[in-house]
What we know:
alpha/beta; Nucleotidyltransferase, domain 5; 7 helices
Amino acid sequence: MPTHTHYVVIDLEATCCDDDSIPREETEIIEIGAVLVDAATLAPGAEFQTFVRPRRHRTLTPFCTRLTTITQAQVDAAPRFPQAIAALAEFLRGKQALFCSWGGYDRNQFRRDATAHRVKLPLGELHCNLKEGFSKQLGEARQYGTGQALRRVGLGFAGTHHRAIDDARNIARLLPYVLGKAAIPGLPAEARARGPSAS
């Protein structure tokens, strides 16, 4: 794995529905949240947040607003995806950061939007699936949601769930446990050598 000086923990929110009005392949990012974490100390540092104005399904569904608390006014005033990605690239400029997220959804959604808008993502080819890494640390096949993982290590969720920046902050709090640098309660110390791999 190439040397990296930071982890960049990213979470996304996207257009969604509860009535099949938006097919999965047509969902679009409406918020990007990112937290830079120092690779040596695992201390969270700079943060990035932006709303994103969708192009295909421009009106948020009531379900989406209830789930995320993101309003129509916020996305209407937001930059389009290419401008949001340019801002993310500027945020990451000069950093050797490994892209991390809780599960594979965020990487896949990023790729879908990047393809639709014909823009290049500033995240490199490697991705670290922290959800898989957490289960690996526990030696379990079970997959944990962010809130479940926080409770498993004795932490509470801080902020608003399903808001990208708050989710990214909470995932960053789990990074030491995923990497085996902090003890998971009830887990034997010798099990802490396991860690996630980037792919």
